[in-house]
UniProtKB/TrEMBL annotation:
InterPro entries: CARBOXYPEPT_ZN_1, Carboxypeptidase_T, Peptidase_M14. The lineage of its organism: Bacteria, Bacillati, Actinomycetota, Actinomycetes, Kitasatosporales. This is M14 family metallopeptidase. Its cofactor is Zn(2+). It comes from the Bacteria.
Length: 435
């Protein structure tokens, strides 16, 4: 594992950082990394030896491989036999693994452990009915298959667009990451039920406007969850011209440094396929338009953002497209504020804080776009578990309450600093015009 810089929390060599996808059953229908067919294919997890640094992980990812877990000097990947053979031919040392539960891990969840898309829409409607002054919602667009993408606003006077800092929480860009939708429902329930009772929440909602997008990728969520068995599907469900493979990785489709740096795939069959052009993914265009629509009087009203993912127990910040701490549009003051605030967020939930590229290079990501294009302090949270032994993308339902409430203080901390994130480094006078 690449050690973090400038005093970021360093994980022990034995710790496992996890990203991308868990072990996938033989019934999974996600296409293997370099294939152009969406038909069902048997895939399994492999441990790849001798991949110890961010540069080595990036080189592996550039073969079209999605990285599952990062260990001290190996990584885990998911691949079919053909892709594994291609990697072997490139000189990689692969060892096939059994399923996580056969390695002593927890049982995976059942699809019924998680709320469905329809459940989410009903929960939003219920919150509006129960808290009419506190909650409003709007359909900000439709998914590729025509489902509503909903943004929920929570504030003391939700029906009015007040001159208050706004914070955005997005969830479920990646279809199989169902725990993130549970996070959205937890936040909605906690902020509404505790307003007027909890002094901190009351003060924050009196001075902030909160936006939740509970599922960015409803088509993918439904496809992954509602057949009766999980399919380990990551992308959206949009066809790709000239290919039988379906779907774009929405978190490689944002319009900043899109496809710039080998941090995504140009193959439609890859789980990290970046799409045909920036914002070609229908759902990315919807959310990006919503964010651009929050520019009022020439000023972006959204000041802070978390994009929730699973899994790995990480707090990540820009940039992902470069290893450098600073780059065009990201000054030393900006980087210091990102690190300080990201570390403060991680201190509340026990996650590991680090710049995204400490893992490996990614491009076209939501965090990089939010910051570089819109000036929003944007973080990714990789939620529970820390490894596939905890259930990977599908942890059992009995951990949902614990692992969503685990982020309560992080959410409130971000809301607190939303008036001026530079306040955490003492630079508010210079950057926010306040002392």
């Amino acid at each position: 594992m690449r050690m973090t810089r400038h005093g970021r929390r360093a994980a022990t060599a034995a710790a496992v950082l996890t990203l991308a996808l868990a072990w996938t059953s033989a019934q999974a229908t996600a296409a293997p990394p370099a294939a152009d067919s969406p038909s069902a294919t048997a895939v399994r997890q492999y441990e790849v030896a001798g991949v110890a640094t961010a540069a080595e992980r990036t080189a592996l990812a550039r073969t079209g491989t999605a990285i599952d877990e990062i260990r001290a000097d190996t990584v885990l990947i998911t691949a079919d036999e053909a892709h594994a053979a291609r990697l072997t031919g490139l000189g990689y040392d692969l060892a096939a693994l059994t399923a996580p539960e056969e390695r002593g891990g927890l049982r995976a969840a059942a699809p019924s452990d998680y709320h469905t898309y329809d459940d989410v829409i009903a929960a939003v409607a219920d919150a509006e009915a129960r808290y009419p002054g506190l909650v409003t919602s709007q359909v900000i667009g439709q998914s590729y298959e025509g489902r509503d993408i909903v943004a929920v606003k929570i504030s003391d006077n939700a029906a009015t667009d007040e001159d208050e800092p706004e914070v955005l929480f997005t969830h479920n860009q990646h279809a199989r990451e169902h725990l993130t939708v549970e996070m959205a429902l937890y936040t909605l329930g906690e902020l509404t039920s505790q307003y007027g009772t909890d002094a901190e929440i009351t003060a924050l909602l009196d001075t902030r406007e909160v936006w939740l997008v509970p599922t960015v990728n409803p088509d993918g969520k439904i496809y992954d969850q509602e057949s009766g068995t999980f399919r380990s599907w990551r992308k959206n469900r949009q066809p790709n011209s000239g290919s039988a493979a379906l779907g774009t990785d929405l978190n490689r489709n944002w319009a900043h440094e899109w496809g710039c740096c080998g941090g995504s795939s140009g193959s439609p069959g890859s789980d990290t396929y970046r799409g045909s052009a920036p914002e070609s993914g229908t759902e990315v265009g919807v959310v990006a338009d919503f964010v651009r629509g929050r520019v009022v009087g020439g000023e972006q009203q959204i000041t802070a953002h978390i994009d929730f993912h699973t899994y790995g127990e990480l707090v990540l910040w820009p940039y992902g497209f470069t290893y450098a701490d600073t780059a065009p549009g990201l000054t030393a003051d900006d980087a210091a504020a990102f690190e300080a605030l990201g570390t403060a967020l991680a201190d509340t939930n026990g996650y590991t804080p680090q710049q995204s590229s400490d893992l490996y290079i990614t491009d076209g990501t939501v965090n990089d776009w939010m910051w570089a294009d819109q000036g929003i302090f944007s973080f990714t949270f990789e939620m529970y578990p820390s490894s596939s032994s905890g259930g990977g993308f599908y942890p059992p339902g009995d951990v949902i309450d614990r692992e969503t409430s685990r982020n309560r203080e992080a959410v409130l901390t971000l809301l607190d600093y939303a008036d001026c994130p530079y306040r955490i480094t003492g630079n508010e006078a210079e950057h926010c015009g306040t002392a």
